[in-house]
Amino acid sequence: MPFFKVALIKFDRVFAHGDKHDEFAKVAEAGHKNRDLLIAEINSADFAEKRNMDMHERYGINKDDVPVLKLFIRGKPVPLNYTGNFLADDIKRFIKTMGGVWIGLAACLEEYDELARLFTLEQDPAKQRALLAEAEGKVTDLKDDDEKRSAKMYIQTMKKLLEKGKDFIPGEIKRVEKLQTDKISNTKKEELKSRFNILHSFKEEL
Fold it and tell me: Are 184 and 192 in contact (CB under 8 A)?
């Protein structure tokens, strides 16, 4: 797959259906406009012509384990196995963090994700403050209220990082994760989901 920077491949059986297939479809829909990203399926059949069984065998896929997701990254000979929950947002975070390509997560803004990436990589507080100022300046260009709320979350996170340092992010992610398990309203769940996704935009790549 030399034409794509990253490819997420789902190895599955023919006529796949169910919740996991539906979650994968959400990922494919979110990523289809990114020219650096291929999202595809290789479905096999162990009857008749045994379609694609050779591809499954090549990558060590056991028919009892499907669906299996593997992330192929240009320049790396061995694909990465996805071992997280089979939920669209979790899979998208995996692509974004490990593959280094943008894919839309709830509340995330591509332009602000790039500022978050640069902010995280930058070691000079003065340059971080300049990125913060740039983020603040872009808010007025946003027309949508939801986008403005998201932008303010990015800005708030930058300010916290300047105040508390890079250890703020993993600690805050754990805190938000815990809050998501509490009995809370649907509105609060969506707010925490947005917060969680934006925090991951500041998470250093592994």
Answer: yes
- How far CA 166 is from CA of 71, 96, 135, 200, in Å, comes to 27, 19, 18, 12
Rounded to whole angstroms, how far apart are CA atoms 41 and 44?
10
- Distance separating alpha carbons of residues 199 and 113, to the nearest angstrom: 10
* pTM assigned to the model: 0.76
DSSP for 118-159? HHHH---HHHHHHHHHHHHHHGGG---HHHHHHHHHHHHHHH
The more confidently predicted of residues 176 and 43 is 176
What's the token pair of residue 191?
């707010």
Tally of helices (H runs) and strands (E runs) in the chain? 8, 4
Confidence at 61, pLDDT banded by 50, 70, 90: confident
CA gap 166, 161 in Å, rounded:
6
What distance in Å separates the CA atoms of residue 107 and residue 147, rounded to the nearest whole number?
A: 7
Token match 């507080």: residue? 125
Per DSSP, the three-state class of 40 is strand
The values of phi and psi at residue 163, to 5°, are: -80, -40
Query: What is the DSSP secondary structure assignment for residue 172, as one 8-state letter?
Result: H
Residue 10 near residue 81, CB atoms below 8 Å: no
CA distance 93 to 186: 22
Mind listing the pLDDT tens digit for each residue in 21-35? 999 999 999 998 899
